[in-house]
Automatic annotation (TrEMBL):
<protein>
    <recommendedName>
        <fullName>Probable endonuclease 4</fullName>
        <ecNumber>3.1.21.2</ecNumber>
    </recommendedName>
</protein>
<feature type="binding site">
    <location>
        <position position="67"/>
    </location>
    <ligand>
        <name>Zn(2+) 1</name>
    </ligand>
</feature>
<feature type="binding site">
    <location>
        <position position="226"/>
    </location>
    <ligand>
        <name>Zn(2+) 3</name>
    </ligand>
</feature>
<feature type="binding site">
    <location>
        <position position="256"/>
    </location>
    <ligand>
        <name>Zn(2+) 2</name>
    </ligand>
</feature>
<feature type="binding site">
    <location>
        <position position="142"/>
    </location>
    <ligand>
        <name>Zn(2+) 2</name>
    </ligand>
</feature>
<dbReference type="InterPro" id="IPR013022">
    <property type="entry name" value="Xyl_isomerase-like_TIM-brl"/>
</dbReference>
<dbReference type="InterPro" id="IPR018246">
    <property type="entry name" value="AP_endonuc_F2_Zn_BS"/>
</dbReference>
<dbReference type="InterPro" id="IPR036237">
    <property type="entry name" value="Xyl_isomerase-like_sf"/>
</dbReference>
<feature type="binding site">
    <location>
        <position position="142"/>
    </location>
    <ligand>
        <name>Zn(2+) 1</name>
    </ligand>
</feature>
<feature type="binding site">
    <location>
        <position position="224"/>
    </location>
    <ligand>
        <name>Zn(2+) 3</name>
    </ligand>
</feature>
<keyword id="KW-0479">Metal-binding</keyword>
<keyword id="KW-0378">Hydrolase</keyword>
<keyword id="KW-0862">Zinc</keyword>
<keyword id="KW-0540">Nuclease</keyword>
<keyword id="KW-0227">DNA damage</keyword>
<comment type="function">
    <text>Endonuclease IV plays a role in DNA repair. It cleaves phosphodiester bonds at apurinic or apyrimidinic (AP) sites, generating a 3'-hydroxyl group and a 5'-terminal sugar phosphate.</text>
</comment>
<feature type="binding site">
    <location>
        <position position="176"/>
    </location>
    <ligand>
        <name>Zn(2+) 2</name>
    </ligand>
</feature>
Amino acid sequence: MLVIGSHLSIAKGFTKAAETALEMGANTFQFFSRNPRGSNSKILDEDDIKQFQKIRIKNNFGPLSAHAPYTMNLASAKDEVYEFSNSVIKEDIQRMDSLSIEYLCMHPGSHIGCGIDTGIDKIISGLNQGMTKDQNITVLLETMSGKGTEIGFKFEHLKRILDGVHLNEKLGVCLDLCHVFSAGYDIVNNLDKVLENFDKIIGLNNLKTIHLNDSMMPFGANKDRHTTIGDGQIGMQAIINFMSHPSIKGKPFFLETPLELEGHKKEIQTLKNILGYI
């Protein structure tokens, strides 16, 4: 089964988001766990949540993913930012877990000058404080493009975090196509080699979800510029090759392309057609 969806708003509730996903031909979706540019979290409506859960079960939804806010930075050297980030990850793990959301994806963080080693240590410390043995949700570290002082643009960064977190069986990786391509992993011409490298360093068993997008910028540019599927430097054929690779096939795909709902619906239909799911 192809598990595919896009990033959707939950501003009108989880039920509306789930209905929108179905209208798009999707069987999953991603959403922000709270205001992506702020700190506010949505008050949960019990009736909305009950209806949402019924829709998930009735329509055989695949795993869903929440995405932590961009304001969260567990690698920050600024005490106030780090304390805020610690509280956010802890709260969002608990809130999303209460909804039976399978994954919570997060950007590892940016060290903002304190250095990669210190930043990684701070991320590990924050996750060790925020994660609990009772949680069911899996926290995902997103692969990054390497812009600025980002951590996570090398597989080795993610491996070090995985190794340092006590409850790393509840930790995994979300691979973003645009980001890895821009970070210098040639998924166009050397996909097998990239996946072999990922498996050797991190382990493909730790790869849980895919952010599906194309790259506006050329290979190795270290720029985070998503574009629509097939319209960028990665290209449709390479994306199809990736999605149908034996190591990737069956994992949840979340579209993160600069389109409105109708555009995402067309992308899903196109991918299903090419992959033979229609």
